[in-house]
Every structure is written in structure tokens, then in C-alpha cells.
Amino acid sequence: MEPSVPPEAPPAGPESALVDQLAALSRVTVGFTAQTLAGLDTELTLSQYRTMVLLAARGPLRTVDLATVLRVHPSTATRTCDRLVRRDLVARRRGTTDRRVAWLTLTGAGRDLVGKVVRGRTDRIRDLVRAADAARATNAADLIAALVTAAGEPTEDQWWRAWADSVRRRPGR
Predict the structure, then answer these.
(1) Which residues pair with 106 in a beta bridge?
(2) Are 84 and 110 in contact (CB under 8 A)?
(3) 33 neighbors 117 (Cβ within 8 angstroms)
């Protein structure tokens, strides 16, 4: 099987540096969320957590609406919620006017968990902003670059070069 290749270089433009920095920063923040979840010993996947965040932010949702927001097939949303229901993090409630409709909501335990993760991630971001000396940045791209550097994350270009090197170093090649 041929390895996948990095995306083609985007057209050069004023937003190019900002897009690259945001891609690197997204790896940092996803890492913070994953680290916070791991620290809580929850055995919750990032997609399950994302489902809970959407329910916290948007309130009760039907499975089909949740699937639309998550951009997944409704059966995928159903399976994810089944797991969360079994863990008492999400509840299904039948509609009062149409009993065929089930509404998904967070339970108290689900709300508590989302709150802990959000607070933990926010604390990590606060520490990162302090470490990056973010007040010295003169524009958005510089600010994000400082945050990425302070987090020890490679730039987007460095990441893709390391990715290409790892493909070349694969055993049997």
C-alpha cells in the first residue's frame, strides 16, 4: 500500500501563515483536552467528549440533529450515545408531544465531567499564554506561533517534514 502524501501546498497569501499556525495550535489544544481526560481517568474518547460538549452547549438534541452537527451518520451518533448512556453521562428522554422522538441530554455526571475537562484545559491554556509571553505578539500569526513554540509543538512545516521522514523510515522500505 502506497503511503499517503501531505496535502499540496496552499496558494501563498496573507492567510497562509495564519492557517499553518492555527493547524499547529489545534494539535496543542487537542492534546490538552486528551491530557485532561486522561488525568481524570475517564476512558472517554475524544469523539465521545465532543458529543458531550455539543450537548452541553446546545441543550437537548435529537440523535439526527446531533449527527448533523457532528457531521456523522445517525447510526454513528446513536452508537456513541449508547455508550454514553450506559456510563450514565447522557440520558435519552422521550418527547412529551411525540413519544417517537427521543431527546439526548447530559446527566449531572456528564455535566460535571465536561466542566472538569473545560476547566482543566483552560488552566493549561492559561499556563501556556503565560509561558509564551503572549502580550509581546504584534499580530495573530505571531501570537499563535509563540503559543505553539511555548507548548513545544512543531510548526506545521516541521510536522509535515517529520511525517515525510517517518514514511521513508518505515520498516520494509
Answers:
(1) 90
(2) yes
(3) yes
From the list 97, 52, 47, 90, the residue with the least C-alpha distance to 72 is: 47
The three three-digit cell numbers of residue 103, written as one number: 431527546
Residue type for 60, please? P
Which DSSP state fits 156? H
The DSSP element (H or E) to which 173 belongs, if any, is none
CA dihedral 33, 34, 39, 44 (to 10 degrees): 110
Global confidence as pTM: 0.80
Complete DSSP assignment for 125-143: HHHHHHHHTGGG--SHHHH
**Confidence bin at 98 (pLDDT 50/70/90):** confident
pLDDT in tens, 15-47: 788 888 899 999 999 999 999 999 988 889 999
